[in-house]
Amino acid sequence: MEEYPEELRTPPVGLISLVGCPELHHMISTFLHSDKPPVNTLALPDFSKICVMGKTPKEASDSGMPPAGILRREWLPKHRTKVPAVAAALFPADHVSGDPAQWHELCTHLDELKAVIRPRNIKLVVVVVQSASDDANEDRMNALRKRAEVDSKYIIIFSLNDESELKQSLNRLGILFAELINVYYRDEGRRIKTRIEKKNFSSVDLCIRYCFKVAVYAEFRRDWVEALKFYEDAYHTLREIIATSTRLPAIQRLVEIKTVAEQLHFKISTLLLHGGKIIEAVSWFHQHCTSYGGLVGEAEVNFLHWEWMSRQFLVFAELVDTSSRTVPGFSSLISSAMDKGLTEWELQPAYYYQLASHYLKEKRSCLELSLSMLESSNELGGTAESVIPSVYVGQFARLLEQTDDAVAMQPLTDEEFTRFTMAEAKRFQDSFEIIALLKKSFDIYSSLKASKMASHCGFHMAKEYFYAGETKKAKQIFDSIIPLYRHEGWVTLLWEILGYLRECSRRDGSLKEFVEYSLEMAALPVSSLGGVHSFSYKECGPAGPPSLQQREAIQKEVLGIVSRDTGFISNGDSNNLLKTENSPLHLEIDLVSPLRVALLVSAAFHEQVVKPGTPTLITLSFMSQLPLTVEIDSLEIQFNQSECNFAILNAQKSTSVTSFISQQSYRVETAPALALITNKWLRLTYDVKSDQSGKLECVSIIARIGSDFTICCRAESPASMGDVPLWKFEERVESLPTKDPPLAFSGQKAIQVEEPDPLVDVILDALGPALVGESFVVPVTIATKGHNVCFGELKVNLVDTRGGGLVSPREIEPHSTDSHHVELLGVSGPDGEDKSQMGSDNIRKIQHSFGLVSVPFLKNGDSWSCKLEIKWHRPKPIMLYVSLGYSPSSDDVNTQKVHVHKSLQIEGKAPVVVSHRLMLPFRCDPLLLSRIKPVSDSERSASLPLNETSMLIVSAKNFTEVPLRIISMSIEADENASESSCSVSPANDDYVDSVVPAVLVPGEVYKKVFTVVPMANSPKVKMGTVCIRWKRDVKSPEQCDSSSTGVVTKHRLPDADVELSPLVVCLECPPYAILGDPFTYAVKVRNQTQLLQEMKFSLIDSYSFVSSGFHNDTIFVLPKSEHILSYKLVPLASGLQQLPRVVATAVRYSAGFQPSDTALSIFVFPSKPPFEMKRAENTQESVMLAAK
């Protein structure tokens, strides 16, 4: 599209002319350029330059002559840059209202301007530039209007007084210009349309020209519909004169018609795409190509036609590419395009770039043919001199004389025009343009994930590079696209691209790549039907047409080169491929290599498991798809155990290979012949013996051809061997790689060599489950029963039986600093020494779940033991794996080792389950406001009254199967908790330690009472962590390695809510009563608020007591004070009796106090009991101790 002039590529923009007052031209022009739609300006500084807008004498003289062409070349740029629609005359206000001389000069300039613009019907606007000191003269303004012969609205006062008036003046000027521009181009279009309607023209060429002009005038007015209509009319009219016009010689006439059609089609396509009519634009383009695609012209200049066709596709591709980025909803048009008979690719610019390159190739071929038909290349010399484009579009002429006012030209004959076009075409390198077009198409297809289309374009792009001599670039592209050709199985295309790669390698002197590409080509499934040479060299590539004979020739050539046979060097480019003795060639063929078609190898053991030192059979199978028989000198069979490697020699070959094999110290076998026939398996069966246990696998097989050429093939198992993709659907006889069908379907290239039977026993012993926190000991005993233990190693592994792993950092307990649930602490020897602390000669490594321990030398009949110390941080079952590896002989440390494996499942359990319960003080009931609210028990948290003593009962249940001895139980405060926030202390340590049993049997519960006093007025209080020190109660110390101080199990207590109780109600009575003796029964109400509290209470009598005092009353408790209600009670019955029930109600909180039945119970003795009262020192509660 860059070849087109700018006036054709861009839509026309209205043009106005500014005459006079040059200091304002820049400001007005800038404003008009930024307007929508923009307006171009032709600035003339004074009235002496206005002649550029008038008609030239040549235009006046040519008006009545018959046309010499269809479209004038300069008409469109003239109307865009020289012929304005509006002429604006700018006069200062002082000239309008000044002296008569100034007024006379103004009128003269105005008359001259009117005389110039009147023949072209250019509209006139008079602009009076007024400054702050100028005053408009009404009489002079009327005279100016009459002199200019315009309406008063076309006389504009352009004020420069201030910024706002200047902006208003510019806006008025812009609106007026837009109106007059539209009027001018509309009138001009109507004038030309009248000629068309009346057919007022002498030639069809003029009809085309008039339609073109009307369309251009419509574009000036942004009337795209009318512009499209007249462009189409001009296009259809042009198609009708192809066979009728004889104004020019035939060749030049066709060139002119195609050039005009090209411009008209470009305008039509641009308007369709601009309007979002992409499908219509594609259909119009196909119609355009169909109409002119067959107008090839004379054979001498047919390259001009293909160049023209290439340019059509190139320009349309650029238009579609631009529209795909600017038109909204472009992707949604694909489905609707398919409904109208279009393909998906016809909406993609890559499709048109690709066809543009195709037609450019046709142009190059035709040009080469035309140039070859010339008698001498000197015939073109000097032809292009003095030939220039004519005044009409699509015409050329010879320049005779050129002056400032006129140009004298002479028409060309068809012969001169032909030589001129050949000379011009010869100057350009079409290959680079073709590569650029293919590169654009390749990039677009790649972005669309259309790999096949992208590969097709890349293939042709690489061919252009190849023929242009850019071998490295060509090979790089060929290598990038050949995997797709192999995967799709496109044999013909693969043959062609391999031929190019083969020649690239030949030119670069890369022998290895040359051999690889040649062997792959020779093994392609190409039938003999391709022997008819019906293709040219470039169509088939350097390798020629695909055929069986060509395959055989390629195989002979490559084998001759690798064997240093100079008779196969066909051209000078192959001299650098000759091998020397110091440059061996080695090829690798793996499971995905394309050379599998050249040599396929399988290996199958006849057994799956074998004892050490026992020979077993292995069958080696070879097959090749090369067209000629391949003689192999030797085969080297390689295993993962190098001592099993052996070589197979061809008995028919020389002994040169034998000396090479002897240097490798291989076992050598001899075969009568090693010949690979096309599509036939070569089967060889030999025995293999391994003395080393483990996996024995046939890794690869090296085939040697000659002294310096080897092919290393990765061995495949017959059971898992896949088909050769390119030969999968070919008509050929298929056979199995082994004669035994079951072995062909189940044979494997690997076998398992068993370990020798061990004569050593490993004993694991563990009593009972392991408990969390203790160092659990597992004795390991090694007893020899026929072997000596030399270089022994004991491997220890801890594995989670549930598969969850032994490490879970996200589930670490808050008090645990170890992230491992189960940990191997160390290994202690038979004498108690810690093996993990010894030197590197005795111990290798101890990790959290893995240990490697050296075992000393043991004679037959000896034993050795050690202890594994394992610690559980969380309850989790594990599997303990112990593996002993040793050598029965001490002669060599690298001899085959014998392994003994033992495992033991150990259950890790929590020793105790800790629970707790909070209780309010006995016979004391603080009012907690949080308990008044209706909340479910699951959502209610524990609440403690501030500065009141509560009871905390901690229980520890033996959750194991073994008895535990509880050493101590305590509560430790949290590190980040304040010491004064909460006081937690045992109720009575001496009493608890003396009465609680020391041993807990399984299922038994140990309890201890603590007092809790919240002392900080905070919403939450941390009560601390319960620490229970325990150890197993066992008779044998070997069963547990816990220290005498015991193991500590910790349990963090939850946080408790703290509230300040506004009221506290307490009952006071003696701990017991005596029948008939009166005692005092008191109710204390303590007000802890700053408010007066009203309390209602009632006393419900009990049949067991006689009471005195008020039964119903209302009392008021002063702030921060205490009120006591006292009653005298006389017991009437002995035994456990219920005291009279006191029910109190706090009026302010609507809360009632009702003591529990336990708080109202008292024991009445018949007489005074024989014991005494003591008060504990460490608590505020009394504890009754029975008298001894």
Structure explained in plain terms:
Helices cover 30% and strands 27% of the residues. The protein contains 26 helices and 55 strands. α21 runs antiparallel to α23. It starts with 5 loop residues before the first helix and ends in a 23-residue tail after the last strand. The relative contact order is 0.04. Mean pLDDT is 82; it is low at 529-537, 808-817, 836-841, 991-996 and 1176-1188.
How many β strands by DSSP?
55
Characterize the largest beta sheet: strand count, sense, and whether it forms a barrel.
8 strands, mixed
Low-confidence stretches: 529-537, 808-817, 836-841, 991-996, 1176-1188
Mean pLDDT: 82
Overall morphology: flat
Helix content: 25-40%
Number of helices: 26
| End-to-end gap | 121 Å
**Cα-atom radius of gyration:** 55 Å
Structural class: alpha+beta
Strand content: 25-35%
What descriptors fit this protein?
1188 residues, alpha+beta, eight-stranded mixed beta sheet, five-stranded parallel beta sheet, 26 helices, 27% strand, flat, disordered C terminus
List the helices and strands and how they pair.
Elements: H1 6-9, E1 15-19, H2 25-33, E2 40-44, H3 57-62, H4 75-81, E3 86-92, H5 93-96, H6 100-117, E4 123-130, H7 138-148, E5 155-159, H8 163-198, H9 204-220, H10 224-240, H11 250-274, H12 278-293, H13 302-326, H14 333-339, H15 349-372, E6 387-389, E7 396-402, E8 407-411, H16 414-426, H17 430-447, H18 451-467, H19 471-488, H20 491-508, H21 511-522, H22 537-540, H23 548-562, E9 585-589, E10 600-605, E11 609-610, E12 616-623, E13 630-631, E14 634-639, E15 646-650, H24 656-662, E16 667-671, E17 675-676, E18 682-688, E19 694-705, E20 709-714, H25 741-746, E21 750-753, E22 760-764, E23 770-771, E24 775-784, E25 790-800, E26 822-828, E27 843-846, E28 850-855, E29 863-872, E30 878-887, E31 898-906, E32 908-909, E33 912-919, E34 924-926, E35 943-945, E36 950-958, E37 964-972, E38 982-986, H26 989-995, E39 999-1000, E40 1005-1014, E41 1020-1021, E42 1025-1032, E43 1047-1052, E44 1056-1059, E45 1063-1068, E46 1072-1074, E47 1079-1087, E48 1093-1100, E49 1105-1108, E50 1112-1117, E51 1121-1131, E52 1135-1138, E53 1141-1146, E54 1151-1153, ...
Parallel strand pairs: 1-2, 1-3, 3-4, 4-5, 9-20, 11-21, 15-16, 23-32, 35-44, 46-55
Antiparallel strand pairs: 6-7, 7-8, 10-12, 12-18, 13-17, 14-15, 14-19, 19-20, 19-21, 22-24, 24-29, 25-28, 25-30, 26-29, 27-28, 30-31, 33-36, 34-45, 36-40, 37-39, 37-42, 38-40, 41-44, 42-43, 45-47, 47-51, 48-50, 48-53, 49-51, 52-55, 53-54
